[in-house]
Structure to design on (94 residues):
């Protein structure tokens, strides 16, 4: 004959289950918050007098501006930092 488990303290069992479920919810939420984020791009039209430095200061919310400018140059296949008015430029929106 099998011995059956008898639940003696129901409040403790309910608290334990609630703790486990809450812990799992927090872990899953943190994974979604700090997970991989895909870069978003925007196309802008360059105005007269614009420089890559000015554009980077406007759109870069975090990190080094020089790295942001380097990424813009890579994305747009530019040979150097010279840009011309009226041209379109793909930038990273953070």
């Amino acid at each position: 004959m099998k011995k059956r488990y008898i639940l003696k303290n129901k409040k403790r069992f309910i608290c334990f289950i609630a703790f486990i479920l809450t812990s799992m919810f927090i872990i899953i939420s943190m994974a979604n918050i700090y997970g991989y984020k895909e870069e978003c791009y925007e196309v802008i039209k360059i105005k007269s007098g614009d420089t890559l430095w000015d554009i980077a200061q406007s759109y870069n919310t975090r990190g080094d501006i020089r790295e942001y400018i380097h990424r813009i140059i890579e994305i747009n296949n530019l040979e150097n930092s010279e840009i011309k008015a009226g041209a379109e430029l793909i930038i990273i929106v953070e």
